Structures are given as structure tokens and as C-alpha cells.
Amino acid sequence: MASGCAFDYDDGEIHQTYRTGRALGQAQLDLWAALVRAAVAPAHPRLILDIGCGMGRFSGMLRDLFPAPVVGVDRSARMLAAARNDPALLGIRWIRGSVEALPIRDGTADLAFLFLVYHHLADRSTALRECGRVLSEEAPLLIVNSTLESLDSYLWLPFFPSASAIDRARLPSRAGLIDTAQGARLRLRGHRTVANPVASSLRAYADRIASRTISTLQLVPDHEFARGIVEFRRFCAREDRCHPVYDEIDVFHFARVE
Fold first, then answer.
1. Please, which residues bridge with residue 145 across strands?
2. How far is residue 178's CA from residue 171's CA, in Å, rounded to a whole number?
3. Cα Rg for the chain, rounded, in angstroms?
4. Which of 81, 114, 171, 175 is most buried, with most CB under 10 Å away?
């Protein structure tokens, strides 16, 4: 099991359960599709980058939104292999590479999308400069990420004592992310905090957490996870009212400074 606050998606077997554990429901797809459309309009992108794409759970959505090629970039060989083998993701090009050294030509992308990638970056300033380098003029860079301010919205977090310290060590603050981006010559065009519909009910949410496909939960000790998931399932069974469950998440819209 990984240790510390960094997580390697090629270490362990998370690639075997990630697709089902982190599957996107229709409400999520509708939410993110609308936000991406709003950021891109009225332009028509010629090349779309799904940076830190993992198994491509957003790559198919991006392919279906616009008549433009989609390139998924990720550093994990195992996650990319699963994406390549997914028949639902035909037509997407997959490239192994890091955000800090994107294998993309200057100024060729008209949309770059990073979903829950920022907190994994080893060198955030370099990564954001790379994102700016590959973007065309005024093209949107969308960074969707949990922040320190959103942690209190995660119902599962108190059930795993070391998880809070892990996330507080690696998640950015909202202002900190914006400052880093501006230092990398990116201009903030918009920021909002949205309610992400992560599960149809608390019982379904408990199943999602039990899959242990959130990287934070891969970093907590095994005995802590085993005890915590039992307690969390009890909580969800007791409190469930069959209502959707939402987590807070932040959406940052940047563009390159000319």
C-alpha cells in the first residue's frame, strides 16, 4: 500500500476496481457537460485534452460534446491500458506522459480539462505553465478539484482518522490554486463551487467509498480503512433517506496570458 501523501496509480490494484467504483452517473455527466459547454462557447474546439485522464471516464463525454479530436494524457500505464481496451472510448487517442512535460505541441489545444488531478501534481507551477503552453489563445483551461475549503462536505472523511491530515497536506486552498496559476501566467476567468452529485443515496455512497477508489483511502492504513468502512456503512444505513448525495468541488476557469 502507498504511504505518505503521494499516490501512484500503477502501485497496487486500483485499476481493477476504479471503473466501477468511480463510475459517473447521468446527473454527473449532465452537470460537467453543461459546465464544459459554457466555458467553451461560442468557440468550436479543434483539439481537446483530457489531462490526467486515468481510465478516460471524462474522455468519452468530451468526445461526444464536440466534433473535435480528444487526446487523453496520463502518467499511469495501467490506467491508460484500461482506457485503450474500453470499447466505449473508441476514437480517443491515448498518450502516456506527465502534466509537467506534456507531449503536445505549443498552442494546439482549444480546451484542457483536469478533473481531480491538481492535488496529485508534483510541481504545480511547472504543470500549469505546460497547460498554458499547449493552449491556443483564449482557450479554456478547466481545473476541477477538491480544495481545503470543501473538505467539510465529505461525509466519509471523519470515519478515517488519518484521511483528513492526508488531504490537508496535499489539497490546495482556493486562493492558493489561483495564486499558483497566476504565477504560471494564467488568467482567472471564473471560479465557482458546485455540488457534485456523487451518489443516488447514502447506501450507494457507502458502496462508492467501500470500493476504496478514492486515492486518499488508498493512503490510509488497511486496518483503519477496514474499521472505518464498517462504521460508515452503519451511519449511511441509519441516515439514508434515498436522497442524492452531493460533495462540494471547485471549478476554476483559466486562460493563457499573452
1. 250
2. 13
3. 18
4. 114
Q: Residue 131: count other Cβ atoms within 10 Å of its Cβ.
A: 25
29-53 confidence digits (pLDDT tens): 999 999 999 999 888 899 999 999 9
Superfamily of domain 14-150+170-199+246-256: Vaccinia Virus protein VP39 (3.40.50.150)
pLDDT tens digit sequence for 13-24 = 888 889 888 999
- For the chain, the three-class secondary structure string (H helix, E strand, C coil) is CCCCCCCCCCCCCHHHHHHHHCCCCHHHHHHHHHHHHHHHCCCCCCCEEEECCCCCCCHHHHHHHCCCCEEEEECCHHHHHHHHCCHHHCCCEEEECCHHHCCCCCCCECEEEEECCHHHCCCHHHHHHHHHHHECCCCCEEEEECCHHHHHHCCCHHHCHHHHHHHHHHCCCHHHHHHHHHHCCEEEEEEEEEEEEEECCHHHHHHHHHCCCCHHHHHCCHHHHHHHHHHHHHHHHHHCCCCCEEEEEEEEEEEECC
Cis omega before residue 140 (within 30°)? no
pTM metric for this prediction? 0.95
211 to 161, 176, 182, 227: CA distances (angstroms): 18, 31, 37, 14
**Could you tell me if 83 and 50 are in contact, meaning their C-beta atoms sit under 8 angstroms apart?**
no
